[in-house]
Specification:
Blueprint lengths: L1 H45 L9 H30 L8 H23 L13 H28 L6 H22 L12 H34 L23
Helix pairs in contact: 1-2, 1-6, 2-3, 3-4, 3-6, 4-5
């Protein structure tokens, strides 16, 4: 069963990665071109700009390839996470589990880190600090994921001792508290020049978040559809799930 889920995750992830890359090509590329123009204009005012190592055509092809590879990796990890959660949240069907998991991971991996360290267009930021900025961003992603995992564990611990709205609010409060502490402790990064066009910066960051939205929503939907279709194969009843629910999972003793 794990192998079947992993194959579905890889296929769904590849498709979602290509879709996200396509969205980035259509929506994000105009912003990148404009940002490159702003960068070139700044270089012409100071010194001659160095020729690009990779042409723009090569970068566009690389965008699609990187999107597919990233989708493959994310899809495999998504399938493993789905396998760990399957049957542990009551009688929720595979479609609902996939959509909820994709939504939570979108918040933890994309939304929260972007609020602290938003994406920056080409030409913004000191090249000498790229390593430290990347490390800070990955640290924020890790903290956000751990906070989401801790919130889920808390909700499970309270499943037999509290009504649904209490455990859901408690889980959300724990996640928000974890994120708030991280936002306070981690240093700020603001290397955007004051003269940089605000509309370009905003539209670039929105389109970058849109790429993540397309990736996670497509992954959750495609993976959920694949799981639901597998339940419709001849000889398999939808009333009998293909997993063994954990005893007591989803019980609400009031």
């Amino acid at each position: 069963m794990i192998a079947a889920l992993l194959v579905r995750g890889l296929v769904a992830g590849l498709a979602a990665g290509v879709l996200a890359a396509g969205f980035g090509f259509v929506v994000g590329e105009p912003k990148v071109e404009r940002a490159i123009g702003v960068e070139d204009a700044a270089h012409h005012q100071t010194s001659a700009a160095a020729p690009p190592v990779v042409s723009r055509g090569g970068q566009r092809v690389g965008l699609l390839v990187a999107g597919g590879l990233y989708g493959l990796a994310v899809g495999g990890l998504f399938a493993l996470a789905f396998a760990a959660l399957r049957g542990r949240d009551g009688r929720r069907e595979d479609w609902s589990t996939a959509i909820w998991l994709a939504g939570l991971l979108f918040v933890a991996v994309a939304v929260v880190p972007s609020l602290k360290y938003p994406a920056s267009p080409p030409g913004v930021g000191d090249p000498g600090t790229i390593s430290s900025r990347t490390a800070l961003y990955l640290t924020m992603v890790a903290i956000s994921l751990l906070g989401m995992l801790a919130a889920w564990r808390l909700a499970r611990e309270l499943s037999s001792r509290a009504v649904p709205w209490v455990r859901q609010l408690a889980a959300a409060g724990l996640f928000l508290a974890t994120v708030t502490v991280a936002f306070t402790v981690l240093p700020e990064v603001d290397e955007v020049p004051r003269s940089y066009p605000a509309d370009l910066l905003w539209s670039f960051r929105v389109s970058s978040l849109g790429v993540q939205l397309v990736l996670w929503s497509s992954l959750g939907a495609l993976f959920g559809i694949a799981c639901e279709r597998s339940q419709l194969r001849p000889g398999r009843s939808r009333r009998e799930p293909s997993y063994a629910p954990v005893p007591g999972a989803g019980r609400d003793d009031r």
